Amino acid sequence: MKLGFVGTGALTAAIVTGLKSVADNSVSVLLSPRNEEIAANLALRFDDVRVASDNQAVLDGSDMVMLAVRPQVAHEVIPSLRFRADHHVISLIATLSLKEIATLVAPARKLTKALPMPMIASRQGATILCPPDKDVAAFFGRLGKAIEVESASEFDALSVVTATYASFFKYLDTVHAWLKDQGVDEIKGRDYIATLFKALANAPDASPTSGFMHLSQEYATRGGINEQILRELTNAGLFDTFTQSLSGVHKRIVASQT
Ligand SMILES: NC(=O)c1ccc[n+]([C@@H]2O[C@H](COP(=O)([O-])OP(=O)(O)OC[C@H]3O[C@@H](n4cnc5c(N)ncnc54)[C@H](OP(=O)(O)O)[C@@H]3O)[C@@H](O)[C@H]2O)c1
């Protein structure tokens, strides 16, 4: 497969790094020359990764093309390019709807919208893609997990999950800061929290049919210390506020689509 990237920034670097860490991959990669430093570095580090002379040369030398420029420049960059009918275009630009992409990349008709995450560099995390496509699912599946969705609304709702990372780390930081206040050694506290939460993150895989609330209840022994914190946070409205924030982000994502 000949894979091209229009836009060589953080996400392209992560995808190429993940891709080239897979043993015996036969994908040749063509990068657009911006960002110059990132593109040159990737070409230096990995076999079969080259930097094209310009964006059009990326398209001309590829059969699958990932659009990875920022939304702010997408409408300037993409319409100036000549796509072929047989190009498979994968847009990573969150704010462009599939309908909008179709108008920008005509006559290319095979289109996918995908949302990979930076942890793809270490082949972790999941990429959502719409509409379902076996080639794109196979590609991202090798770099972590691929989750295919049928509708744009499902894609948008799933995208909201990516807005929760900072709060997750704030949650861990709250525990860590509290431990430090108790005089616990900073490194030991961090190590303990990180190790426990890594183990907890395995629970859904270990009990694939259990819902998250079931897992929560398993730990919330009646009258126990887990139940106490869960009850107090629930009564304080923390989770209701969280749900409202999710809805607020969802509205923003839906409104940003052109
Ligand atoms: N990073 C994430 O976690 C993430 C996750 C999901 C989706 N996305 C989406 O993926 C896309 C790329 O994100 P990113 O984080 O990789 O952004 P980024 O690091 O800013 O990379 C975008 C790249 O596009 C280059 N560029 C600017 N103008 C260009 C042009 N005319 N032709 C070709 N390339 C051009 C920029 O080069 P210069 O540096 O020279 O300006 C930059 O290297 C965005 O649409 C973003 O919304 C990102």
Order of helices and strands: EHEHEHEHEHEEHEHHHHHHH
Strands, total number: 8
| Spatial sequence of strands, sheet with the most strands | 3-2-1-4-5-6-7-8
**Spatial extent as radius of gyration:** 22 Å
Task: Characterize the overall form.
Answer: elongated
Name of the CATH architecture of the largest domain? 3-Layer(aba) Sandwich
Largest sheet: 8 strands, mixed
On the 0 to 100 scale, the average pLDDT is: 96
Percent helix, as a range, is 40-55%
**Which structural class is indicated by helix and strand composition?**
alpha/beta
How far apart, in Å, are the first and last alpha carbons? 30 Å
- Domains (count): 2
What is the CATH C level class of the largest domain, in words? Alpha Beta
CATH superfamily of the largest domain: NAD(P)-binding Rossmann-like Domain
Q: What is the count of helical runs?
A: 13
- Please name the CATH topology of the largest domain: Rossmann fold
Strand content: 5-15%
Low-pLDDT regions: none
What ligand molecules are bound, each kind once?
NADP nicotinamide-adenine-dinucleotide phosphate
Name a few traits of the molecule:
52% helix; elongated; 14% strand; 8-stranded mixed sheet; ProC C-terminal domain-like fold; Rossmann fold; binds NADP nicotinamide-adenine-dinucleotide phosphate; 2 domains; 258 residues; alpha/beta
